[in-house]
Amino acid sequence: xxxxxxxxxxxxxxxxxxxxxxxxxxxxxxxxxxxxxxxxxxxxxxxxxxxxxxxxxxxxxxxxxxxxxxxxxxxxxxxxxxxxxxxxxxxxxxxxxxxxxxxxxxxxxxxxxxxxxxxxxxxxxxxxxxxxxxxxxxxxxxxxxxxxxxxxxxxxxxxxxxxxxxxxxxxxxxxxxxxxxxxxxxxxxxxxxxxxxxxxxxxxxxxxxxxxxxxxxxxxxxxxxxxxxxxxxxxxxxxxxxxxxxxxxxxxxxxxxxxxxxxxxxxxxxxxxxxxxxxxxxxxxxxxxxxxxxxxxxxxxxxxxxxxxxxxxxxxxxxxxxxxxxxxxxxxxxxxxxxxxxxxxxxxxxxxxxxxxxxxxxxxxxxxxxxxxxxxxxxxxxxxxxxxxxxxxxxxxxxxxxxxxxxxxxxxxxxxxxxxxxxxxxxxxxxxxxxxxxxxxxxxxxxxxxxxxxxxxxxxxxxxxxxxxxxxxxxxxxxxxxxxxxxxxxxxxxxxxxxxxxxxxxxxx
RNA sequence: GGCGACGUAGCUCAGUUGGUCAGAGCGCUCGACUCAUAAUCGAGAGGUCGACAGUUCAAGUCUGUCCGUCGCUACCA
Length: 509
Description:
With 509 residues, the chain is an alpha/beta fold. The chain has helices at residues 19-37, 53-62, 66-83, 97-112, 166-175, 183-194, 223-228, 230-233, 241-247, 260-273, 297-302, 305-310, 321-331, 343-372, 385-402, 406-427, 436-456, 461-470; strands at 3-7, 11-12, 41-49, 90-93, 116-126, 131-133, 151-160, 180-181, 200-201, 203-204, 212-213, 216-221, 251-256, 281-285, 288-290, 293-294, 339-341. It folds into two domains: 3-285, HUPs (Rossmann fold, 3-Layer(aba) Sandwich), CATH 3.40.50.620; 347-486, Orthogonal Bundle (Isoleucyl-tRNA Synthetase, Domain 1), CATH 1.10.730. The strands form four sheets. Strands 1, 2, 3, 4, 8, 13 and 14 form a seven-stranded parallel β-sheet that branches. The structure holds one RNA strand of 77 nucleotides.
């Protein structure tokens, strides 16, 4: 059995969950679900990043402790992911003891190996970014991101010898073309490594809300470096070497393109410095654009996952349901380039793919079967014309997931839905007399629905399970294992079908 | 400034090594059907494949230039 370990970035608790977080997390979830279907021993991690000056200050402003501050926001992420049916196996918080231990273990190793040294750092610091800037990176002394003055700071820092790993990493990414997907982002990583790679500051003395540096307790680690290590913490780094050995070699990080440098350059170097030679792979996505523009905080605040799922009268949002939201984020934006988030497009896609094609297919097949085949469903024909289509759909779907292209995978699955609708139109079972011919047509259609339910379950887990049950299948669709479960000819019939409300009621734009 | 990507039907995009490559889905129009959530099925609408020049028997598919969009990165001011 192979293993698959996938992570989302851990989200900074200074910000409430928005659709950008949801986009990343839903994609990671779909990959996790797909790999479970494929029978992989899968580990899916998400969580929250809770250290740093920004949290410390926010807590002070609110008159609470930093941990209380983090608690209140972290739980909102948990709730959001629960609502979106995210199937994470663990939820890590960087304030947890296990994480502190892992950070200290890993950094101590890097220190012992001679890759960390002390130096004085002086510069202009933006609290919002938690980063130092040079004069010309600022806009009249103000941080361009946060539009506030950068502060003069001078402190003794520990530095990480990133420069010592530039060549090794360059070679690594040159030789392994599948480490960073899509390919365009791999080129960016190579570009970063071909330039001068400078050592980086990794500790702070000016704050205390962080993980203490084990060999010098006046310092805490800079929030970014503490944060990255969460990926190792969660699979037992420093605590359970067997577990770490099992999952770490299969690590995949789902990230947005804005954090490529930290993840694809800094993080692997830190691993190497600590003597870990298995380097993670990356799935890099672009940003969701709203009306062609990069999402701003204010625009984001206008749209939350919850509003899209449940609908919102004030904003005149219709309820897409959990699966509707998930499907849109997986199917509409190309994976990699920036994609447009469009409410109108979301409705069009929902009505077309979910309501008209899939939901309606389930409905019509169950109804016709009930009218023409008696109380118990017929079995499928081992030699149906749909058999080849099901095989094609499975092959193409599998290939697209392997290439890290959810939109293409879903399109491939939906091809079987369209083929089944065509098949029904060609056979017109509703005109036929009850008998073997109708039984065959309906059995085949039910078999196609069975297979689609499995293949579509990573995207629309709720509806897939519902369809699964309505055609008389038992157990959980999530527990099916590919490729066997997708092999044509397994629908045995002899069971009662269930009618019900439409899986996806049509929405009015 | 350097490096790189992209610019194909109204929309989102497919189009390996040049020769059925002018395509798919959605949208739209018309037709069919009525089992189904006014869903489904079929047909069509004719986009000079950003512009120009070139290589070739043959170019979205190669070369050069230009225009446009974007990303990464550097630096002067």
